[in-house]
Amino acid sequence: MKIFVVDKWKFLRYLLVLTVLCFVFTFAGNLTTDIIATIASASRKLPIYNIETSEAKISLTFDCAWGAEDMGQILDILKANDVRVTFFVLGEWAEKFPDVIKRMAEEGHDVANHSDTHPHISSLSYEEMRNEIKTANAKINALTGKTNDLFRAPYGEYNDNVIKAAEEEGCFTIQWDVDTLDWKNLGKQNILDRVLSKTKNGSIILMHNGTKDTANVLEEMIKKLKEKGFTFVPTSEFIYRENYTIDHAGKQMKN
């Protein structure tokens, strides 16, 4: 029977080399993943999901596409709490509720573009995409007396052509990183839990008017976010308009 004697120091050297190799391969794998993600994001257009900032600033946004029964209550709460937000409205909705649009603008809120008719915009032709955005902007601008440069696609759907069409109409495409899911009518506490657990510096929060819970949860949500140190900024005053990049996750960063 043969007996193999292993030199202790050789064994430790081999173990050290093996450990280093494992680390290198692991690091290289992670690095490769990051490089691939960066290349992928560079090859396609992305909307803005949130903003890179060290300040405790956030943007509260509402999509307005159907009724307007709760808009008086929502605007009263925002005014009472000195909060300005961004309303993404349909062109058709703006036509139906011009007095609401004018009040939004008069009280310092963004009145932004959510398309004209709320189609599945990524399935339209390029000219149809542009027409949806252009028509809504014309209606909004006429009512507010201001030029809008923010666009949010219906259903959050987008592709390169959607973003390109928005850019050609002078608009930044805006998404969100905190979804309240208020339209699912899951209850006030569910909304509060989602918002308070997910909101961070630079977040863009999505809400909707015309739901069962939105107007009823809004004031408590605002107060709790303020207690956490957050301040509210309309999206138009939050995004970078030049000298910026958007990473593979949609974070807009100042160069």
What does this structure look like?
The chain contains 8 helices and 11 strands. By secondary structure, the chain is an alpha/beta fold. It folds into 2 domains: 1-43; 50-254, Glycoside hydrolase/deacetylase (TIM Barrel, Alpha-Beta Barrel), CATH 3.20.20.370. The strands form 3 sheets. Strands 2, 3, 4, 7, 8 and 9 form a 6-stranded parallel sheet that branches. It has a 3-stranded mixed sheet with strand order 1-11-10, with no helix packed on it. Strands 5-6 form a two-stranded parallel sheet. A hairpin with a 4-residue loop joins β10 and β11. The longest helix is centred in the first third of the chain and has 35 residues, at 8-42. The radius of gyration is 24 Å and the shape is globular. Residues 1-6 and 35-41 have low confidence and may be disordered.
Write the layout of secondary structure elements.
Elements: H1 8-42, E1 50-51, E2 57-64, H2 71-80, E3 86-89, H3 91-96, H4 98-106, E4 110-113, H5 126-144, E5 150-151, H6 160-168, E6 172-173, E7 178-179, H7 188-198, E8 204-208, H8 214-227, E9 231-232, E10 244-246, E11 251-254
Parallel strand pairs: 1-11, 2-3, 2-8, 2-9, 3-4, 5-6, 7-8
Antiparallel strand pairs: 10-11
Report the uncertain regions. 1-6, 35-41
- The CATH topology label of the largest domain is TIM Barrel
Distance between the termini: 69 Å
Rg over CA atoms:
24 Å
Q: Helical residue percent?
A: 40-55%
